[in-house]
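Quarterly update, task 2.4: protoporphyrin IX containing FE-bound model.
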Amino acid sequence: MTVLLIIFFAVIVILSLLKLSLRPPHFPPGPRGVPLLGYAPLMPKKEPIFKFMQKLSKTYGPVTGFYLGPTQPFISVVGPQAVKEALHNNDLNGRPTGAILLSRTFGESLGLIFVDGEFWQEQRRFTLRHLRDLGFGKTSIEDQMMDEINDLISEITATAKSDPEHIVDFKAIFSVSVINILWAIVGGKRFQRNDPQFKKLLDNVNKFLESGNAVQANLPVPAFLVRLFPSLPRRLGINTELFHPIQKFIEENIDEHLSTRLQAEVARDFIDVYMDEMEEQLKANVSTTFSKKQLICSIQDLFAAGSHTSASSIGFAVLYLIHYPEVQQKMREELDNVCGDSLPSLAHRSRLPYTEAVLMEVMRMASIAPLAIPHRAMKETQLQGFTIPKGSIIAINLDSAFKDATVWEDAENFRPERHLDQNGKVIKNDAFTPFGIGKRICLGEPLARNTVFLFVASLVKTFELKSVSNKPLPTLEPEAGIILGPKPFKAVVIPRV
Ligand code: HEM
């Protein structure tokens, strides 16, 4: 083993020296790193990576290139034009396959997020089709959403009433509601808001997404080292062990589905649909991408991508509305005019342009997925006139497009009106792509949009949300991480009569 390690390190020293001096022709400009480790050790530890990359672009331009470790090219894409070009370039549709990331999924390329090629296409197409059939983004799931919203409203009302100042703690309050909507489609079950086991699982997802960064996750650590030292990803800031209890929970649910499924019974949810397909393909004896492990990892990905993102968006909306009470009031007036005495529904949505504009502005300002999810060059390709080598990791800075001064007037200010034309109709700016664009666009976009709309609109219709008197306004600065969430905050909640 010692000999193996010495040979391994000798090879990477040589490769590193070669790479640092010999960048491929037309490689994007960027900083040089140190031998062996590339630019990784020079990256800031405290500053958010997406902000640091925006700073680099001021020196090197919209496409910056450097090496992580001795052999891994890393490309940072900043600004609306470069971001759009990168997202539409199908050669950049791959995902990183490094051993650190794979340790999330049993050391294999499984799931929906960190897979690519034909495997990804088949699994994504199947998942999207069946989640849609089961209610994703459709009004058929609206009743379920409204149950969750009513449940949340009851809890917030009870908490506000039990406090003499009507103060409610908004820490992690939305996650269970949001995941219950997803889980109704995937696993056909609902969890109690205070179920400690379920809360712990969601907490693990949040911890994972709030730790680590796009650079550490892609350090080119060889798989044998991760196998030898399973805690290595955690030590490098990517705590993939947090997913172990989630995988166990998902597997138990799949087993329960198998044991309770009656012959000829129609599929109850996504787990049933998936297991049916798997069985059929196994019976037909064809080579298949379907497996129980893949189902566990797909559900894990839906969990990871779907809970913290939607919950953070709702949390940020509440936070911005506390900071901008006049916006909150204007939104409430529109909701009262259009919805009368009832809670907002999806049918009202097209008649609520101001509410829509507020939600768009929250997503622009909060920019919860500032670097999208890293892409990978499937083959050598061109971006903004530069050559991107095969295998490069691409960090696409969505946040930079949301704040670009050439596209947005007073970009740093919260101003929902910017999303409306003179007639008060919603307008869509090309640079505003919170769910990404192109083939890798967010798989949960319709569900997320409906969820965030119904929750925020219902909260504003039901409550007046205010800052706590004699306390500074809660910060709008996000909790750092791969996905940005609001820092824990409290607000005064006055139920409207
Ligand atoms: C407000 C909430 C959400 C936002 C802002 C958001 C944003 C994003 C973004 C920016 C990407 C990466 C696009 C790229 O790499 O180019 C993504 C991917 C993804 N999202 Fe979402 N998302 C949200 C909610 C959800 C929900 C609710 C689900 C599932 C239930 C979901 C599932 C996924 C999946 C599976 C991917 C990977 C798609 C692929 O690689 O093919 N997301 N999302």
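Highlight for this quarter: The mean pLDDT is 90.
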